[in-house]
From TrEMBL:
InterPro entries: Gfo/Idh/MocA-like_OxRdtase_N, Gfo/Idh/MocA_Oxidoreductases, GFO_IDH_MocA-like_dom, Glc-Fru_OxRdtase_bac, NAD(P)-bd_dom_sf. Residues 2-121 form the Gfo/Idh/MocA-like oxidoreductase N-terminal domain. Pfam families: GFO_IDH_MocA (PF01408), GFO_IDH_MocA_C3 (PF22725). It comes from the Bacteria. The lineage of its organism: Bacteria, Bacillati, Bacillota, Bacilli, Bacillales. One of its GO terms (molecular function) is nucleotide binding. It comes from Fictibacillus enclensis. Signal peptide: none annotated. This is Dehydrogenase. Residues 130-256 form the GFO/IDH/MocA-like oxidoreductase domain.
Amino acid sequence: MIKVGIIGCGSIAQHRHLPEYQQNQETEIAAVCDINQLRADQIAKEYGAKAYYSYEELLKDPEIEAVSVCTPNYLHAPITIAALNSGKHVLCEKPMATSLEEAEQMIMASEKNGKKLMIAHNQRFVRSHEKAREILEKGELGKIYSFRTAFGHPGPETWSADGTNSWFFKKEQAFIGAMGDLGVHKTDLLRFLLGEEIEEVAAFVETSSKENATVDDTAVCVLKTESGIIGTLAASWSYVAKEDNSTIIYGEKGILRMEESPEYSLVAQYKDGSVVNYSLGQIQTNDSGGQIDSRVIAKFAECILNDEEPAVSGEEGKRSLAVIIAALKASETKKNVSLANGVLA
């Protein structure tokens, strides 16, 4: 079994990493770390692990083979690099870094030390998304014309361990708001579904609903891929009634609707009038009754045990990060921003 340490014991660790490591037969939670000592002690007791109050001390533990980095965004890069340099494999939460330079340093540390670096983009592993990619790869929709994707909910205060005082709202710790929390998931999903890179970005990135925030809470982007597919991406913390986590792909021969219907996770509507409904399980949610296994931990364990390329590598994470950084720049300059293979042109 892989002995793992979880660095940061806030909401994402409590909702995702800790329970998924616990239920995975190939991993053992050996240590947890949080600067909030009471929280670290409580989590350690709950999972039968050793408690640390600084990540540096945890990384000195020779038993730990891999770590999850579940800290505020500004700490992702320094902790990940330190962990890789300490000989640990790393699963890092998204967005992987606060700049492309940091992301590149993380990738270099992984390569230099021969350790795995995986980014926790869970939308690739949603069953409806996997099935949609399969349909698209087979060419069943013909030429793809457009897309529309959205990820919105009432905001981190509804589930963050620190509520309205959460680091999510503080630019010096978060770097970016809804676009980094939610939008980066969708940039990664679009790249996964369409099988090509985003080449050009236009965007409005605003702070409109969260009075205490110094980061964005609502963003709408127009994206163009390498082959000329255009579409929109919305990311928001202002969807107060119900979460929206839907994606629609419009093609020459039909339309794919993912996570839009409350009854079917994927609906394929074809030009000839035929409709295929797929019941493939629910997408991840913190609401009761939602999916409890994002499959991220399982994929991370597999890549270590089988010595394989991570399902979402550091390079993949960097390219998805580049799109949201381009969106910020586009909003600030009021000009379209071009990308080339995960780098701002």
